[in-house]
Amino acid sequence: MMFLRSRSLALSCFRTSIRAFSSSRGAGKDASEESALDLDAWKTVMRSQALREESESESPSRSALDDNRELVEMWHQAGKFVPKNITDEQLQDLTRLATRSAKKKYLKFLAIKESHKISKKEKQERKKSEREAETENLKEEEGKLKNTFLLRFWSSSADRVQSWRAAQAMRFGQPLVYDMSYEHHMTRREMENTVAQLMESEGWNRRAADPFHLHFCGLQPDGAYLHELRRRYGSETWDRLMITATERTYLEVFPQQDLVYLTADSKQVLQEFDHSKVYIIGAMVDRSIHSGVSLANAKRLRLATARLPLDEHLDWECGAKNLTLDQMMRILITLKHTGCWKKALEFVPKRKHAGFTGVTKSQKKRNYTVYTPNYLFG
């Protein structure tokens, strides 16, 4: 009996251990399966997160533009001097600026530019309303509208004549070169001012009786100069301009012995205008006065240089002897037509000199008294 009882007890213990082992094995299997399931979920989460980070890294400019747009809007609401409207291109330029002070300066420049544009638009609208009011007054006085047909006919005829002269200049006219290789020597604001002066110069040349054949040499296809010119003129108008715009240098277009580089730093004085020469003007607005840049460029290429005889003809008082591009154009056009330095140098700003040399102070005073409008508005 005792033997049987002990045997049955051993069997029950054995069964209990087997059940415990099987249960522990089953629990281990469930845990391993659960851990396998958790690992698959973790892989899925990590894979989706990596895809999201990759998509964000592929379009950082969009988020940066949004951040800068919100920054400008926040500064505008805080009363800071920033533009009310800003384009995506301007936001991209703002994104490239690293420091906060640089961003403030650029936004201030855009705000000033925007205010000038608004004031100009208001002035144009005011003039338009004044013209309309004047037309209404004439209508009431004369009982009929002012005849504008002849004015429109004259304007279209003048445009055709100017286009014909520019076309003739491209074929037979004397070349005048603008050196467009100074893009990296200027800030963005100086580059925009340069383009504005180039447009003004092109307009004066087009209206001349005997215009130059303008060459924009060194104009890079993907450069800031061409981008700004196309933006201001419009692509269609730019393509129709009677000028030669090329990425080639002037040495590749003209013989070296015919080239004369006009620079204020030259020691050679341009005594008289030579119709057989090709004069070169650096397309650069130099607010920071990088003196000698154009002269060094001409010397490196072994070109003849010359400067305008400002000291020889004018009593210079103050300011640098660097003239704007449109002033240079008007001086060269007048000199080409008349050959008279006195008439040509009338386009030098009066604030920079005290008049022409050889004129006494009493004569200057009498001339100023008699010809006040010329000195004020010339």
UniProtKB/TrEMBL annotation:
<dbReference type="InterPro" id="IPR007356">
    <property type="entry name" value="tRNA_m1G_MeTrfase_euk"/>
</dbReference>
<feature type="region of interest" description="Disordered">
    <location>
        <begin position="118"/>
        <end position="139"/>
    </location>
</feature>
<keyword id="KW-0489">Methyltransferase</keyword>
<dbReference type="GO" id="GO:0005739">
    <property type="term" value="C:mitochondrion"/>
</dbReference>
<dbReference type="InterPro" id="IPR028564">
    <property type="entry name" value="MT_TRM10-typ"/>
</dbReference>
<dbReference type="InterPro" id="IPR038459">
    <property type="entry name" value="MT_TRM10-typ_sf"/>
</dbReference>
<protein>
    <recommendedName>
        <fullName>tRNA methyltransferase 10 homolog C</fullName>
        <ecNumber>2.1.1.218</ecNumber>
        <ecNumber>2.1.1.221</ecNumber>
    </recommendedName>
</protein>
<keyword id="KW-0819">tRNA processing</keyword>
<dbReference type="GO" id="GO:0005654">
    <property type="term" value="C:nucleoplasm"/>
</dbReference>
<dbReference type="GO" id="GO:0070131">
    <property type="term" value="P:positive regulation of mitochondrial translation"/>
</dbReference>
<keyword id="KW-0175">Coiled coil</keyword>
<keyword id="KW-0949">S-adenosyl-L-methionine</keyword>
<dbReference type="GO" id="GO:0000049">
    <property type="term" value="F:tRNA binding"/>
</dbReference>
<keyword id="KW-0496">Mitochondrion</keyword>
<dbReference type="GO" id="GO:0097745">
    <property type="term" value="P:mitochondrial tRNA 5'-end processing"/>
</dbReference>
<dbReference type="GO" id="GO:0052905">
    <property type="term" value="F:tRNA (guanosine(9)-N1)-methyltransferase activity"/>
</dbReference>
<dbReference type="GO" id="GO:0160106">
    <property type="term" value="F:tRNA (adenine(9)-N1)-methyltransferase activity"/>
</dbReference>
<keyword id="KW-0809">Transit peptide</keyword>
<feature type="domain" description="SAM-dependent MTase TRM10-type">
    <location>
        <begin position="162"/>
        <end position="355"/>
    </location>
</feature>
<dbReference type="InterPro" id="IPR025812">
    <property type="entry name" value="Trm10_C_MTase_dom"/>
</dbReference>
<dbReference type="GO" id="GO:0032259">
    <property type="term" value="P:methylation"/>
</dbReference>
<keyword id="KW-0808">Transferase</keyword>
